[in-house]
Amino acid sequence: MSGSVIPFIDLKAQYRTLEGEIDARIKAVLEHGAFIMGPEVAEMEARLAAYTGASHCISAASGTEALLIALMALGIGPGDEVITTPFSFIATAEVIVLAGARPVFVDVEPDTGNIDARLIAERITPRTRAIMPVSLYGQPADMAAINALAANHGLAVIEDAAQSFGASHGDARSCNLSTIGCTSFFPSKPLGCYGDGGAIFTSDATLAEAFRQIRVHGQSARYVHDRIGLGGRMDTLQCAVILAKLGRFDWEVERRQAIGARYNTLVDELGVERVVQRPGRTSVFAQYTVMVDAREQVVAALQAAGVPTAVHYPVPINRQKAYLSCDPDHQTPMADRLAARVLSLPMSADLDSATQDRVIAALGGSLR
To answer: pLDDT tens digits, residue range 47-80?
Structure first.
């Protein structure tokens, strides 16, 4: 192995910078003892709503619960269909099935990995209730086209923004690009806590109240249950971690975008294919992803050079055993092709140029 192993995501460096703020926030929770729905929950929700421009932010136990709560609030269930992408983390389709509905898959763009908005209309049926695009790798899909199509058909749009908090589409920020936006605060996300956490965003007051009730077992008041719900609250401690990180978040977004742009230049010089960023949209580069042939050999060469990698994602959802029966007759060749070729490289706001150069040198060496 050549040199020390590079962190894939350097959370330790981030903690060293924010140690005082994080420790103080955690200590405050330990002292007041309100571990569930403590004051930090409402504080975080208010600050995140203001950041996105949405009227309401409702925290949730994870990004997965956020998506499920959104579907439940819309009344989506058996007999309904939700259009989504096959090229995402499994939770995107998982929640549709858990709600009792059927995921209907639409193929993706070959250069972004995001759902191809041009292909959605042909998959809409009388049973379609919502469209759930994913803002993959930190970049929103073509939300303008998706929203327009949804409006014409009377459909809700739920942005799965688990990877894109801090990104934008035109003048609007991710999580405030459609009827509902859901994000994740899993530790590796651009804005992450130290466990599971997530949030739902909307400017619809009726939906917001439904989200709040569903996340506490459908309660409208203590021990008064007006709807079916679940235990979907985000822990106060995790909200405290997010609050400690928010002061640095704008800087981190700027750094991610600068590092992503530098990666683009260096990768283009190597002649390697990569995920592209569309005009009018920004990415927070939750992952920096290239496309390579003979991926296993490239991974092995990078590993030998001390450069870790990951594959997001190696098997499309509609090819997974548990989901084969959901949409069995529809083919998604672009998702299949990307699943065989994508490779994510080390990426975080604390990645310095020398380390980035080492990653690129190893990538170039692996292709010789």
So the answer is: 999 999 999 999 999 999 999 999 999 999 999 9
Are 344 and 275 spatial neighbours (Cβ–Cβ below 8 Å)? no
How far apart, in Å, do the first and last CA atoms of the chain sit? Answer: 18
Whole-structure pTM value: 0.97
Domain membership flag for residue 219: yes
Give residue-wise pLDDT tens across range 117-131: 999 999 999 999 999
Give residue 2's pLDDT: 56
**SS3 at position 3:** coil
| Segment 133-144 mean pLDDT | 98
Q: Any residues with CB less than 8 A from the CB of 125 and at least 6 apart, and which?
A: 81, 104
Q: How many Cβ atoms sit within 10 Å of the Cβ of residue 107?
A: 25
Question: In CATH, what number is assigned to the domain containing residue 183?
Answer: 3.40.640.10
Per the structure, the complete domain to which residue 79 belongs is given by: 11-242
Residue 46: other Cβ atoms inside 10 A: 12
User: For residue 313, is the peptide bond before it cis, meaning its omega torsion is within 30 degrees of 0?
Assistant: yes
> What whole-number distance in Å separates Cα of residue 233 and Cα of residue 60?
5
d(CA 325, CA 248): 45
CA dist., res. 186 & res. 193, Å (int)? 6
* Of 242, 266, 298, the domain-final residue: 242
DSSP secondary-structure letter at 40?
H
Looking at the structure, tell me whether residues 275 and 180 fall in a common domain.
Answer: no
| Domain shared by 172 and 280, yes or no | no
Residues 6+ apart with CB under 8 A from 223: none
What pLDDT digit, counting tens, does each position of 337-352 carry? 999 999 999 999 999 9
Output the six-digit token pair for 225.
């249950």
C-alpha to C-alpha distance for 229 and 178, rounded to whole angstroms: 23
Question: DSSP readout, 161-177?
Answer: -TT-TT-EETTEETTSS
Give the contacts of 322 (CB within 8 A, at least 6 positions apart).
none
Between helix 11-32 and helix 236-270 the angle, nearest 10°, is 170
Domain count, the chain: 2
